[in-house]
Amino acid sequence: MDISKKSFLSAVVILLVLLIAAGFLTQVIPMGQYDYQIVEGKEVLIADSYHAFDGDRLPVYKWFTAPFDVLFADGSVIIIMIIIFLMIIGGAIHLLNETHVLSTLIQSIIDRFENKKKILIYMITFIFMSMGALVGIFEEVVPLVPLMIALSIALGYDLMMGLGMSVLATGLGFAAAISNPFTIGVAQQLSGVTMFSGAGYRVIIFVCTYIILNIFLSLYGKRIYKAPSTIDQFHVKGEKAAVLFFLVVIGLLGIMIALTPFVPLISSYNLPLIALLFLVAGIGCGLLSKEGIINTLTIMFKGSVNMLPAVILILIASGIKHLIQSGMIMDTILHEVSGLITNNPPFVSVVIVYLLVLFLNFFIGSGSAKAFIVMPIIAPLMDMVGISRQMGILAFQFGDGFSNILYPTNAVLLIALGLAGVSYGKWFKWILKLQLVLVFMSLVFLAIGLLIRY
């Protein structure tokens, strides 16, 4: 769980450059704002209500205080919640490592699939992709990333393969969503489209994305595979009672995740609930491993402290979004792009929607938050150019999802890279070709969607 200095410093430099760039944009783009109304407790933009205005620009010093200002701005609760979640997860995972619970589980998986490694990888990627595609899981996979990295290395692969099986697979599933309630569900609701309708076409997209991901990982795996030693990977076994206790908690976690789209209370508090489960798992495994309460808490504290660099990255990344919004230029960007959509042929218009959401995703990572901002604009514009609202939602889905595992402003990606000790530059080079393939695939499915009147 230790975040390497190299990966941390490279991410900090990139984010600081982007922070300054965002600050510069607040000085040159005209300020403006749409009116908003409250619908079912959420702020929804009112189309055709944009108005420009003059006012004082953000002072330059605000560019550099933005990472701290986000802790006191609207929406700060979710940022604080993510930080607390991360600290608890870091402590729990460190304790599970120290008590050899994770290594025991990994060894049992290796023993079971010793001659079926590729099948195991296909199964794992399918599970992680399905979590993203069906129930909108993304942030919640963070606790499982170290486990997948350790499993990948034990199988004879490397850090990148571990990231590919977990955070990459989940991110692609989130983008190739079938019934993701946080993107598809919210966007369709705001657009007046039947919830989760059009799923058949999205299943085809999911299958194609799954095939592309596994081809990518298989080709990479062939290049870097190194047969692991015949000696057992892990000599020290965890206490049987601790391992069984952890499996029970993981089972409860799986049930909770499955219920997330259907139980509003769980959906609203999924991060605190997951953190609570891992806190219980960590302390329980520590006590069952006969570490004692003092030593258990000491080990957990050390693991939490190790996550402080990730907290810094989250604050800087959140500061970029804060600058764009507090500088009052986000709505101006939306207004200007909406004019382009209505003055072009259908395919160009839907591609512009895709590119707009792709751009906004750099600053606003939350899929549901973006939906509340852009769908009230996009939906009526689709009507004006003769395109179904379902197509506008599909363009939104592609623009929101695939870039989650590319942009350095995505907190989940930064945390995962930090846990693996992988620099953002290395990740970018590794993922770039796959991203280009996914962009091409997105454009093809948008074109086909127009042809079949999806």
Sheet of most strands: 2 strands, antiparallel
Query: What share of residues is helical?
Result: over 70%
How many beta-strand segments?
Answer: 4
Q: Helices and strands, in N-to-C order? A: HEEEEHHHHHHHHHHHHHHHHHHH
Through-space gap between termini: 45 Å
**Inertia-based shape:** globular
| Overall average pLDDT | 87
Strand content: under 5%
Low-pLDDT residue intervals, each spanning 5 or more residues: 230-234
What structural class do helix, strand and pairing data support? mainly alpha
Strand order of the largest sheet: 1-4
Alpha-carbon Rg, integer: 22 Å
Number of helices: 20
Please, how many domains? 1
Structural description of this entry:
The chain has 454 residues and is mainly alpha-helical. Helices cover 72% and strands 3% of the residues. The chain has one domain. The chain has helices at 5-28, 61-69, 76-98, 101-112, 117-135, 145-155, 159-175, 181-191, 199-224, 240-259, 264-268, 270-288, 293-305, 308-326, 330-341, 346-363, 367-384, 389-401, 411-420, 424-451, and strands at 32-33, 36-39, 42-45, 51-52. Strands 1-4 form a two-stranded antiparallel ribbon. It has a two-stranded antiparallel ribbon with strand order 2-3. The radius of gyration is 22 Å and the shape is globular. The termini are far apart. 47% of the residues are buried.
